[in-house]
Amino acid sequence: MNRCAPATFGWNSAASAGVALLLAACGWLIFVFAPREITMGDVQRIVYLHVAVAWCALAGCVAMGLAGAAYLVRRTPGWDQWSQSAGELGWLCSTLTLATGSLWAHDAWSTWWTWEPRLTATLVLWIVFAGYFLVRGSIEEPRRRARTSAVLAILALADVPLVVMATRWFRGIHPITPDMDWRMRLVLLASVAGFSALFVLLAAMRKRQLDQAEQVAALERRAGIVT
Amino acid sequence: MELIQAARAWWWLVHKDLLREMRAPRTWAAMLLVALALAMVIQLPLELPAAEKPAFLGAMFWLSAFFAGTLSLDRSFAGEQEDGCWQGLLLYPVSPATVYLSKVAGNFVALCALNGVLLLAFALLSGISLLAQPGLFLATAVMANLGFAAVGTLASALTAGLAQRSGVLVLILLPLVLPVILAAVGATQSILEHEIGAWWRWLQLLACFAAVFLTLGTLLFEFIMED
Amino acid sequence: MGTLAIAFALAWAAVALYVMWLGYHQRLLRQRLDALATADQEQEASRSHARAA
Predict the structure, then answer these.
(1) Does the pLDDT value for residue A125 go beyond 60?
(2) Which of A3, A9, A92 sits opposite C37 (nearest CB)?
(3) Contact assessment for residue A55 and residue A192, using Cβ atoms and an 8 Å cutoff
(4) What is the ipTM, given to two decimal places?
(5) A77 within domain boundaries
């Protein structure tokens, strides 16, 4: 009987090594190359991590929505799997954004939290991801689950810019684009690139795993095994 | 021609829902009572001096409207599902968009009635009338209710038939509807403080939200209705 | 400095946990595949037994 390949990680060694190298380079850039900031000192280096994961969280949301739309058009399970992978990592990144942001805020503004546009929008994003997975978890039938999740992902995608607009009109103290030393800007870009690469790698691994799970489920159905 | 038929079908669906509600009030009675209870409970502990009331009134009003309105939205599709009429609705020769827009209209009417009751309750309990500038407030309420009904109907359809329905509906609805709540509160506050420029900005955000979600809903509803 | 260390530690802990979670799911998949292989072998065995009989 034909079985799918041994269930390994789908660990693409070259890609993983590449990402590891990139992250190591980022580490060097963040801790050695980037100049020490005058006002806040070394704690300012959190920014390189915080902005990178925030960017990944937003990218995850966008990817989740676009993959959902692709699923509704194409109806291939692969798109639903991409949507789920992007959603999981997006949720993880938004959690990290809130955590690192809070840590930085405590040092910079002496408060763990404030109802300020970007923070509120990120919290909303976090809740949206959580809702997405709650709904996914509540539906057994795979096609209905994929359809419902896709619609929710598209709604979330449309909502996030509106939340940003609404909260920006409401009030704002979060730094938008402060004047940065060219070296800091370089390190920031590198950090975003590094974390984005890690995001894509992990998402691809997860997507492949979901695909394998789908194949195993199909084989089990054929063999009459009920799970 | 098709448009006239669709409009007739839309009116028939709206008329059917409103008539059913009038004959055996299941949803409206609960919703209006909850609204009154909320209006009391929110204002009672906050014995504010008259000068500070306007700042909070807008927020209290729209939060009460949101929570009570969620009851109506929650029941949008429950009626059909419980009475076994869902299949009938699916087989009825109208486009899913017409069904969606009819449900939105029904919810919109319910939310407007809710606003009326809340206005009365708040005027009596706080001594401040939100209708000092009726035209502006009416425009705000219409846009806010439209946006809220648009996204709420979608969310209700998404969560209809899930295991833990009500909890998930509020969880999904809250982040999606946040821009509406913020904008409505901002607009109401601007009216009370006589800042027309600010009010116009908020109204634009409300209109934008309503337009985006009505369009999305019309496009996406058929994917929710498939079964 | 402590804040910086905590932030980076959190990030790497999150990535590590996610990878471990992926590994756990992969192990589950492997178990299911093994169960399928075993069921397959048993079916083969009973078929050849029936043929022999």
Answers:
(1) yes
(2) A3
(3) yes
(4) 0.85
(5) yes
